[in-house]
Specification:
single chain, 205 residues, alpha+beta, 4-stranded mixed sheet, 7 strands, 53% helix
Length: 205
């Protein structure tokens, strides 16, 4: 088991200003991306995508379906880039929320059979920054999908459209809940890859 420090920079004194950009350890980024991908897959991201594709073919639903589809594609792109590109955490000002920033150079996504069983415990300082970025970038997009699908569900009720929007809403809420449970504020983040290549994210008080 490895315990990773908050950044790949020398420790700063309290008098020094905290950096606005942090290079994320490659192993952490890859495992985090795989863990988030696992949450999306188990939460039904494919089901959401299929339902949105169906709704996009219906005139009165097309606009909202495309908006939610764009948000889902953005989220899947973030998860993929964590696994393939150099990742940094950035923020505009001290005390602000953190975001993910990716380089333009990318490497191939490793197949699951190449993952080695491993465990990483990320210290609370970096965990706090990662939770800020996940909340700011990922959970905000999921909230948008939940909100729009909820409004459509109210409008269309129990007909075929309403059933699809309810499906989208249910699965988006499941993904949101599972990410929130895995990244509880005030805890350290544990990344664990088992012998089958499955990576999970969990909190450690």
């Amino acid at each position: 088991m490895d315990i990773l420090p908050s950044e790949e920079f020398p420790k700063q004194s309290q008098a020094e200003q905290e950096p606005k950009e942090i290079l994320l350890n490659k192993t952490v980024a890859r495992m985090l991306g795989r863990g988030l991908e696992q949450i999306f897959n188990e939460g039904g991201a494919k089901t959401i995508s299929n339902a949105l594709e169906s709704l996009s073919k219906i005139g009165e639903c097309r606009k909202y379906a495309e908006m939610m589809g764009s948000a889902l594609a953005f989220l899947q792109d973030i998860v993929n880039k964590l696994q393939t590109e150099e990742t940094r955490l950035t923020r505009e000002k001290e005390g602000g929320q953190w975001n993910f920033k990716f380089s333009s150079e990318s490497s191939e996504k490793e197949p699951a059979e190449k993952f080695q069983a491993s465990e990483l415990i990320i210290d609370k300082d970096l965990s706090e920054k990662l939770m800020s970025a996940i909340g700011n970038v990922i959970n905000n997009k999921l909230t948008g999908i939940i909100g729009l699908s909820g409004l459509m569900d109210e409008d269309f009720g129990d007909n075929s459209i309403g059933k699809k929007t309810n499906l989208i809403n249910t699965h988006a809420q499941k993904i949101y809940k599972n990410i929130s449970s895995a990244t509880k504020v005030g805890n350290s983040i544990r990344l664990f890859t088992d012998d089958n290549g499955k990576t999970t994210i969990s909190p450690i008080p």
